[in-house]
Amino acid sequence: MNTPVMTTGTDDCEALRDQLWAAVTDRDEHAAAGVVLAALDAGTDAETVLLDVIAPVQAKVGTEWAANRLTVAQEHAASAIAERVIAALARHPSTRRVPRPGRITVACVDKEWHVLPARLLAEVLTLRGWGVDFLGAQVPTPHLIAHLHTSGAETVALSSSLCTRLPTAHAAITACQAVGVPVLAGGAAFGPDGRYARLLGANAWAPDARTAVRLLADGIPAPDLAIGRTQVDDLPHLADQEYTYVARSQGQLVREVLTQLEQRFPAMNAYTSQQREHTAEDIAHIVDHLAVGLYTDDDDLLPTFLDWTAGILTARSVPARSILPVLDVLAAELQDFPRSVRLLDHARLALDATLASAGHNSGAPA
Amino acid sequence: MAPPKESSTTIIHEQPASGAWVAAPYPVVVADGSGTVVEVNAAAAFLMDGVVPGAGMTDVAPSWLAEAHADAVVGGAVPRSPGEAGVLPSVRGHIGDHSFEAHPSWGRDGQVVWWLVDDTGQRLAEAALSTERERATFLAEASNVLMASLNTERCMLATARLAARYLADAAVVVAPASGRTMPVAHAVAGQEATRALVADDPSLVPGLSEALQGFPPVPSRWIDPVTLPGWMLPEGFTGPIGSVAVTPLPGHGVPAGALILLRSNGRAEFSESEELFARQFAARAGAALSAARLYAEQSDITRTLMRDLLPPDLHRVNGVEFAGGYQPAGAREPVGGDFYDVHPGGTESEPSLVVLGDVCGKGLDAAVLTGKIRNTVQALTPMADDHQKMLRLLNGALLNSHHTRFATLVLASVLRTESQVRLRLTSAGHPAPLVVRNDGRVEEAATHGTLVGALPHVEARSVEVHLQPGETCLLYTDGVTEARGGPLGNELFGEERLARALSGCAGLPGAAVVERIQMLASQWLRDGRHDDMALVAITAPRTTHLSAVNGHTRGRYTA
Fold it and tell me: How many angstroms away from the CA of A359 is the closest CA of chain B?
């Protein structure tokens, strides 16, 4: 790197983060750009600004939203501001760099809207002189493959934040590998330890942008095409078709759960159509995560999501134990599907434990 | 009687009739414990000169047989009495050009009877079979690798790597020149292939230009290694070159390139069957490379033709924020039947013209018509102050074209005055734009009119709308409201949900409004199919940058 590197102490970064946080929550784009550009003027290295200032602030936006201290609108405004601040940073004279050989394609999985982690990686790679094709959010797999045929990228960095996108991510990973291009997976969807990246056969996984850059610089070996691997080789448990069934009958399952909840809890009859739709959406999310649990055959996936949901509900003063009857109805509906029953039982136990430790009354719904 | 082939155990009878094997069609040699030949039959005498009773095995028999005999009499367990079985291992070796299996068995007095079976034909068949198996496996692997990519560079590298591994010690793939340089891929067996661009005259290498032209078909050519130019030697290839073959890669009517195989000195030259095999490989590699080349040419053409059909990137124009979002219906084509454009006003006091519309149909056919409409609208921008007139002219142009499709669209003339943005909106059969006020109210602009391209006369009613700082006017196509899905799977997203979602976007930057609506519609759809969806947000900026010292420090703002 030829950018002047100044050691920026953690205190400096913390001050910058605070200023940026204030500007972002104030929805003040100019102030936000001002914070970042002033830091660059003062000699702070652009990579540090991207990864130690902008990225943590953006992560804080997510946690603050979960804690109900930011509105959805503020969250979207923050992303829009981060986008523009990054664009302004890329134009700053201190970010000029020496090109190096090598081309990387950075893309988000189809229907993945959380573009910022991928964007940050693309910017850091650009700063390090790589040729980068940034395809942005929600890239349909056929577009990604068409791009690989024409661009000749040596590696695809594939980002996904939502674990419900894992089946789509799997399709994208195997498609890239089928044309001979290795895949580096990154983002929260692949698990804090990268377990889903390994499960889906990604060639590499990185927990953060710096690790990703290092792995890419070391070189990720291309997949061996001679063997002729297929998608189902990775996940033999899919042969029982449970995932296919649950994913396909999603709407039907949601309707059934909703009907039974209404019979059990007469109070629901007084719901407005909007409240009813919110409830349906919450149920749909649980079914989505059950489906991905079946896809990955992972016992922890659904409990992790329910744990997070319980936190969200509690922050919004909704009793988290309202999830329990949903699990019960689903378990009854899917009683002929052994893996679904196993995952739901597991989730139920884990949620009981969470609620008990949080001091809630577990067990029978009110 | 044929001698036992598989078993090396023979039961010895009381009185071995030495006469019985004398007439056997297989060569038989009997030698005693001291290594002296005792008896031979006619077949053995015919096969091996000098093998006669009384001669020493080490002197007259092939060394492998003499050694096996010595091992047998020294180490073998001599049966104590005739009739007791003794086990001796059989051996293999050559006599002249033929291969033999020698099966020993115990004779009288510690003598060993050697039965020789000619297995030359079997050995050759086995060798041929294993070579063919290897080649079939290699060709299957090569097909897996070569068919995987439609990228010419990756195909060239794979071809070079495979050829170096199986066919030669090093391989070079030369593609037909593009411009002044020829793309070249080098590979040495066991190493990664590398690519380079070479600016050299291919006719300097005998046979190369012909192979690169792809026509007429030429056979592989053997060339003198000293005529090789330096660029042809792969890095990491050491030692003198023994043989060089130039093989054309046959393409589908397009030249695919040439494969040059290099073998180092000391390794055998290419046999006829190896040459045939190299040609089989070249046929596969050529097919893959020409498919990749065709794909590259086609996608170049598509990209060029599609460039003007893609939705433009929107940004701030004359103090007004514009943001657009587009999702085509098909995952394969990046274009569809929805379109939008912002034509900036010539000066800050002239309104910019925004057009967003939807051609009946989707996919490429619809996209081509959007291109025509967009061009026509652009040509009509000088009369942008009269929406009715624009629509009349556009309607006439569409009616006179050979397309039978019609379109709906919205025109918006946008002018910034002070901190406000003034809009004149006209809908021609299109969903009315929605305005998000700062307090979260969502208003539908009261404009309506007939669609264009269907009826001889068009009518439309325009409406004026003012945006305060932070407020947004959203133009959208019905792909958004007609998105089908939701938690129950089969509901329309609908205008009500759109309005409710917009109400939550009060005060957001235009880009965030577009992103939020796109995200909600996409989540609503889940994995379902959808129509094209297009959105344009026109936003009065919340704060106005009045002065900035160096362009990026904080200046003064008006709200």
Answer: 31
**What global pTM score does this model have?**
0.82
Position A341 scores a pLDDT of: 95
Digit-coded pLDDT (tens) for B220-265: 777 778 778 888 888 888 778 888 888 888 887 777 889 999 888 7
Q: Which of A19, A24, A26, A27 to mutate to test the interface with B (most CBs of B within 10 A)?
A: A27
**Is residue B539 within 8 Å of residue B472, measured between CB atoms?**
yes
Q: In what order do the strands lie in the sheet with B407-417?
A: B338-343, B352-359, B407-417, B420-428, B460-467, B448-449
When CB atoms are compared, the residue of B332, B522, B545 closest to A111 is: B522
DSSP-assigned letters across all residues of B50-111: T--TTSBHHHHS-HHHHHHHHHHHHHS---SSTTS--B---EEEEETTEEEEEEEEE-GGG-
pLDDT score of B303: 87
Nearest CA of chain B to the CA of A180: how many Å? 7
pLDDT classification of A163: cutoffs 50, 70, 90: very high
CA angle B346/B352/B357 to nearest 5° reads 135
Domain B312-547: which CATH class? alpha beta
Reported as type and span, the H/E element at residue A217 is helix A209-218
Torsion angle of the four alpha carbons B9, B15, B18, B19, in this order, in degrees rounded to the nearest 10: -120
CB B377 within 8 A of CB B407: no
* A42, B381, B538 from A323: Cα distances, Å: 51, 57, 41
What residue type is assigned to position A16 of the chain? L
* pLDDT, tens digit (0-9, with 9 covering 90-100), for B108-125: 888 899 999 999 999 999
A73 vs B contacts (CB less than 8 Å) = 504-508, 512, 516
Range of lowest pLDDT (A195-209, A283-297, B213-227, B274-288): B213-227
Mean pLDDT of B81-97: 76
Indicate the helix (H) or strand (E) that contains B315: none
Topology (CATH level 3) of domain B132-303? Beta-Lactamase (3.30.450)
Q: Compare CB distances from B515 to A76, A143, A146 and report the shortest one's residue.
A: A76
Averaged pLDDT of chain A = 88
B510 to chain A, closest Cα gap in Å? 9
**Contacts A147 to B, Cβ<8 Å:** none
A179 vs B149, B515, B516: nearest CB? B149
Structural domain B18-118, CATH architecture: 2-Layer Sandwich (3.30)
Residue written as token pair 């930057």:
B509
At A36-58, the pLDDT tens digits run: 999 999 988 999 999 999 999 99
